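no rush on this but wanted to send it before i forget. theres a chain ive been looking at and ive put its sequence and its fold in token form underneath. please have a look and point out which stretches look like helix strand or loop to you. thanks a lot i owe you, the record is right below:
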Amino acid sequence: MDHSEISPLGVRLGAVVIDCADPDRLATFWAGLLGVEKYAPIGDPVQYAGIAPPDWGAPYMSFQRVPEPKVAKNRSHVDLHVNDVEAITALVEELGGSREQDFDEYGYRWRVMRDPEGNEFCLVYLRPRDDGRGARFAPSGRLPHAGN
């Protein structure tokens, strides 16, 4: 693929890499959550594992073993735009993740979740609100995220 077709500078986001204690476990979790293929892990014990991108042109996710544990809130995280937040919450919990907190701020709604190692990610609502106010979209047509 010619990267110059991706952006004027020839740059594109290729991967989101998550440091973790058990790359194979997190790759299994995220592959199950996104419904994508899990790549063959590398190393014995596994040092790197990855999953296929959910959409053409999207970055793939990679998980890399690190010796230090997660000790604080992530400085960056993944947002998943979902149509049915309750169904995806149930899937996250079934796969070993957990629910943290719901937010409704500045006209946007999202739910903070954690993967099996405690890394935060958000489920961002794409369906209209039950109160009739509807979901707000940025001028780009994308739902912005105010953070957590």
